[in-house]
Structures are given as structure tokens and as C-alpha cells.
Design brief:
The complex is a heterodimer of chains A (154) and B (726). Chain A has helices spanning 22-29, 81-92, 102-115, 121-127, 138-153, and strands spanning 2-7, 10-15, 48-51, 54-57, 70-72. By secondary structure, chain A is of the alpha+beta class. Chain A has a five-stranded mixed β-sheet with strand order 2-1-5-3-4, with helices on both faces. The relative contact order of chain A is 0.16. By secondary structure, chain B is of the alpha+beta class. Chain B folds into three domains: 7-204, Aldehyde Oxidoreductase, domain 4, CATH 3.30.365; 211-285 and 341-433, 2-Layer Sandwich (Aldehyde Oxidoreductase, domain 4); 291-338 and 437-721, Aldehyde oxidase/xanthine dehydrogenase, molybdopterin binding domain (Aldehyde Oxidoreductase, domain 4). Chain B is 29% helix and 23% strand. Chain B has a seven-stranded mixed β-sheet, with helices on both faces. Chain B has a five-stranded mixed β-sheet with strand order 13-24-21-20-14, with helices on both faces. Chain B has a four-stranded mixed β-sheet with strand order 1-2-3-4. In chain B, β1 and β2 form a beta hairpin. In chain B, α2 runs parallel beside α3, α9 packs parallel to α10 and α14 (522-539) packs parallel to α18 (698-706). Residues 1-36 of chain B have low confidence and may be disordered. The chains are: A alpha+beta (154), B alpha+beta (726).
Amino acid sequence: MTISLKLNGQTRAIEAEPGTPLLWVIRDELKLTGTKFGCGVASCGACTVHMDGQPVRSCQTFIEDVEDAEITTIEDMENDKVGSAVQQAWLELDVVQCGYCQSGQIMNAVGLLRENANPSPEDIDEYMYGNACRCATYQRIRAGVQRAAEILEA
Amino acid sequence: MSASISRRGFLKSAAATTAVLFVGATADGIAAASGRADAMLNPFVKIDSDGNVVAIIKHFEKGQGPATGLSTLIAEELGVTMDQIEFEFAPSNPELYNNLLFGPFQGTGGSTAMANSWMQYRTAGANAREMLIKAAANAWDVDAATLDIQAGMVIGSGKSAPLGDFVVAAADIAPSESPRLRDPSEWKIIGNETTRRVDSPIKVNGQAKFGMDLHLPNQMVVMIKRTPQLGGLVASYDDSSAKEVKGFIMAMPLPTNHGVAVYAENTWAAMQARNAIEVDWDMSGAEKRSSAEVRDEVMTALDAAPVYNVNKADRDAVSASVDNAATVVEKTFYFPLLAHAPMEPLNCTIEQTVEGDIVLHDGAQMPTGPHMAYQQIFQLTPEKIHINTMLTGGSFGRRATPDADYQVEAALAFVMTDRSRPVKLVWDREDDIRGGYYRPATGHKVRVGLDPEGNIAAWEHQVAGQSIMKGTPFESFAVQDGIDHSTVEGLADNPYTIPNMSVGLTDVKKATTVLWWRSVGHTHTAYVMEVMMDMAAKAVGRDPVEFRLAYLDGGGEDAERKAGVLKLVAEKGNWGQPAAGNVQGIAVHKSFGSYVAEIVEISGSLNDGIQIEKVTAAVDCGIAVNPDIVRAQTEGAIGYGIGHAMREQITLDGGTVEQFNFPDYEPLRISDIKSIETYIVPSAVAPTGIGEPGTPPAAPALANAVAQLDVRIAELPMRDNGVSFA
């Protein structure tokens, strides 16, 4: 099937079989590799993208379900007010280690800050629970979200 | 086809590789005729005539920080800022880029990246500085001693010019045997709290390219249909259903018959085609045991006299001393198989150049391993094989296998093609969790005798475990008198001055392929040592910190440094004064040359679930080249140790791994630890490791906190042994 995919502000025609995860269209077809493959079963959050501004797991989002939606990936976050604040906070605090999960962490954190401009540590833990980081950078992710909230408030 | 690695074969290859690369890297570097503007002032410093400085990083970057740390050493000595230096990973060349602690072998492991590079990279940076200064002194006709390089400018004698102006001339100046290293008082970057990671910017905007992100033109993706039972072989297969998958190319059994290689145009097609293939397996030689049987083998071995006397103690005398002691504390421990489960599933890509060279693109932890294996597989001389080291999404040891397992798998898949298309091998999470390279199952049985004054009279310690090193190319130097030190490290060689200690070891048949896992033997030895110290202290009514310090008194520098972190953590972590409703546990351990003490403070109860409120750590790793990375590694190492102690294990049912993916091999989550504070002991001694040393004390500190709730956990993970978590 051919679907019209709106991604990072551009519309593209995508040829893909129904049931193809959005993740593999983004990574293998569009070659936007900032969105990562971690588990394939929506258990780690490395593949998180935004669908109409809401974080979704692209490994369990199928191509036939995203027509007419606005998809945004990590590559477009520098053009997003909340996204760039989170990226700035991540740099200030050197949140990353291996970095493989961090695109997903950032995409999820942006979703949180859009819903809740001033999240408590408990709010962060609850919202970010599904984003795994085997390097265990969680302490800095928590601090990074709070720092991004400060940047956005300033 | 066999791809075993022989040390002798390696040494021969090293010489050949060196000649080619070294000439290519130096004499050629700035040749005007070639038009190239890069000058390799030495194997670690490349500068072009525009003054762009590149540090050549010989260790792979899995998040532990060598790209930043080694760039820091070059920048400091050369005299540039961190904004003025970039990094590239070194090619595979065991003569130029070997790990100085591994011999003629290029690789990362054992928390040695900074420790082995400390003098080498500073010397390289200093040499580059002196060569540039001599060139400037010649050009300006001034005394070189009056010049320095600061922030990329050669300055002195009233003159100033960018260092790039002197690169061409510097390339012709012979490097010094012993350049002047900057005095610590001159350091601007080393030890600086504000130095940021060099790889952060590309890791927050999606631009970082990990191995998994490589898309070579016309590449195929290969996934392997694997045996459900470890060690099964392909008897026959049927790919007729796979042919209906769009993008499926072909399927072929690996030459080893360990699986069926499934080739496709893209990853999703490979996944679907692999699912569609049916395989009949020959399980005659496969693992058939279940976890209970493996555990029984370990426990049975602990009941017999040990085969090896690790510290050549008089075992009978130690045993008698324990028998006759006023108080005896004893415990038997068991540690399960563990997977590494780095975030980036294993992958690598192979292509053949028009000249017939082989290029491996890989997050290569030990490039020399696949380099040697590929010489055999492809029947090529070493200089015809190239390894492009890429950023790596974690490893924890998994990407360093003695048999170069996944790189060999990719090569075998590649040689079955006509080699016209690059082949990208992709593992998924199930391949990773069920892939058969695990922290060994290990047991300990310990009896500690205490005298009437509450002091240790004797310590009888026995270990039964699966040797990591035996049967690998590393056996010849890692196993001595039959003893695999990696099974018992941290026991008899512990800085504690424990009297009358005996350590025995018995090897148990491997459940599957076992492998080093972040901090290797210390994952279990630290747990046992520190839980036993805690039990012994409590049995005689002594404070666990005071009790430990008594066995670090008079033990020399090693013991003093261990005592130092213990005292610091007790002070910073408010030892003995937890927040209302909380309890604390403490542990301290030396590993990989570094000393780490940790206090874990928990709330809750066994019935309602435990919450880890706070972990306080004190670290002595010598000079902290980048204090913030030292803290970050400690935070991560604590999380890694605690996550596995809480709820992770690999179990076997009739030889089949029971876990599949993160839902049932559940990683630490953000809410599991509320906060971590790390304190670094100021030091002037050479840096030691930091990637691993934070892990060993984490689990025993948690166990010692849980013990305050009257449950002594001697088998992991805790969740399966009586502890619930909030």
C-alpha cells in the first residue's frame, strides 16, 4: 500500500505493507536513524516518536494507522521549543552515556513537559517509567527534565 | 569452519599490519605531492594545516567516556581547548593501538581505558606540542624554551600564531623520547568540573551513528534463525513461507549449522522472513539442563573439598580454627546466570572493497579478535582487513567475546553470498537475551570464626563456578595452576587483613557460554565478602564500619585507600543516622585498581515492598580526569548492580532460556532508585578504572540494608528470594 506520511513537517509517499511498524519506515526507508530499535515490543521506549505531539512507541505503531497524523522524530526537536530546552538541559548535565536510548528519553520527556510544565520527581518517575536505560542515567534524566522545566519557565 | 584465535597467529599479523599503517600514517601524512593536508604527528594526534586537531581514540566508546577522557589528555598537553579538538576512533592495529595492559592486543575491558592510556596519551600530546614549538622556534629564530601553546596559539618571545601554521614543518621534526609533561599545576582541563562530554551533542539530536544506524548502499540485512535450546544444530529447514515475505532474498544454514541465515532487503523483512522459516533442530548435542540442575551442580561442588587451593592456605588448620571459634557465622550463596542486555542489540556490517579488502563496521570492543578471526575466514593477510569502529550502545562486556562470536557470524553469512552487497547482521532483543553469553552461575560457601573478643579468628571460603577463561584463547595467560582468577578475584587478594583465610575453588561444568559481565568475578565475590563482613560484625555486636576498619588498619596503602572511601561514605551518607523510617546497609570493595564504598538507604517493609531512597558512594580512582564522568560511571555502575540484584536472572528449562525480552528480563527503571550521590577522594596518583568498580559494592550494600529487616539474602535476584520492591 502507498500511504502519505507527514513527518517532521514534510509529506512523503511511503510504499509499505500493512502491519509494517513505523519504526522501520523511519529507520530503513527514510534513513532517519535517531529513532532507535531497542526491544520491538514497546518495553524500552528507545523508539519513541511523537504522533500529533504525543509520545508513541514507533515499534508498535503501524504504518496504516499514521496516515493523516503528524509524526515528529528526534531530528526535528531542535525546532521545537520544549525539545530544544530538553536538549539544552541534557547537554548542561551530560545526561548521556552510551546514548542509544536518549532519543527516546528526550522524546518522552518532551511529552511530559508539554502536559506538565513543572513536574515533581514522582511525576517524572511515573511518566518516564517505560523508558529503559541500561547505563542507568536515570538520576540525570530526572534532573534533566527539571532543568528543562526551568529553562522553559525563564 | 573454525575461527579460533591463536596468539602466535596474532603476533605474526601484528607485525605485518603495523608496517603498512604506520608508514601510511606518518611519512605519507603531509606529503605535498599527495595534496593531503593531514599530519599524523604521532599515532594519537592528527592536525591539519588549518589547525584542526583530532585525537585518535584507541578504545571504543560505549558511554564509559574514553572519547572525552583521551581527548582531554591530548588537549591538555598539546595546549588546545576542548572546543578545538575532535575525535576519531583508531583503526584496528594491535601494534600501534594495543591496550598496554593487554599486551599486543587492541581492546577495551577491565576498566583499563584511562589507566593504560594515561601516560601514553599525555606523552603523545606533549610530543605534538614540542614538535610544533620547535617548528615555530625555527621559523621565528627564537629559543624553543620561551614558547608554549595555549588555546591553540603558539605564543612566546613576543610572538603569537595559530598552531596550524607550523604543522607542515612539525611533521619533519623527530619526536622526543621523553617530552616534558605539563605539571598538574598547569592543568586546565584534567580534573575540571566543567569539562563536558565530547559525544553529548550528537547523542541528543539523533545524529550519532551507532553500528545499528549504518546503511551502506545496496546492503542486505541478515538475521539468524536460532536454536531454541542452547547448542542445537540445524537438521533441515523450510523457507517456502518466507518466500512470500516482500523483501526476502534467501535463507541459508550457517556453515556451523548453529542457525539459518535469513537475508532480506531491510530489517523488517528479515524479521518477518525469519519468523516464517521452519527449522528442524538436531538437539542431540544441545544443552538439556534446567536451572535447578545447574544450581544443584554448584551446590554439590560446594559440599565437597575444593579442587584448587587458591591462596595455598593450610585448609585443615583454617577449618579447625573455625570449628574451635567462640562464634561461627556461616552462609551459602548462589548467583544466577545474567545477560548483559546492552540497549543496542548486537550488530555489525561487512563489505568487500573493489581491491578485495574486507571492511568490518562494528562497535568493536576488541578489534584484534575479529581481525584475527577474519584472516582465517577470508584467507587474507592482516593489512587487507579493516575495522571501522563505531559508537556503541552499551556492552557491559557482551561485545568482547574470546571467539568474536557475532563478528564471525556476520562473516560466515557474508561468505555465503557473492560478496557484491554489504551484509549487515542484526540481532534483536530476543537474540540478545537468549543468545547464550552469560555471567557464570556461581556459588560460595563461607564459614567465619570469631574469637571471644569479637575478632575474626579464621575465614574458610569456598567457591564453585563456571570458568570464563578456560577453553578460550585467553586461558594460557588468564589461568594459572588451574585457577581462573576471574572466578575468585576480590577474595584472597582483598585489601582486608583477614587472618587465617583459606580460599578454595572448584570448576563446575558450564551451563552455556559464559562471559565477563560488568566487574566480572567481583559481581559475586564482593557480595559474599561484604555480606559476610556484615554478618560477622553483627554476630559480635560491632558496628559494620568500625569492624571493617579494624581489618584495614596496618594493611599498607592499599588498605588505607579502601579505608579512606569507607570513612568518606560513612560521613557523607550519614552512616548510623538514616532518615526516619529508613534503614541502611554499607559495603566497600576494591576492583580494577579503584576503591568504592556505598551506603544504600531503603524505606518500606518486606510486606509492602522496599524502596531504595538513596545511594551514597565514595570513590578513589586516583586522579579523576573528568570528575563528572567518574560520577556518571559510578551512578550507572550502581544502577547496573542493583537492577540485577533486584530482579534479573536468566533461567533454563531443559536447555532453553526462559526469558525473551525486557518484559521478563526487566531492566532497572527510573523509579527504582530515588537518588545517588557520589563523592570523589582527591588524589594525585595515576588514574585507575571507573567503568566497573561502582558495581561490586552496590548489591551487597542493598543486601545489608535489607538485612536490617531481618532477611539475609544469600541468593539472587532478591525478588525471587523473598524481597518485594515497591
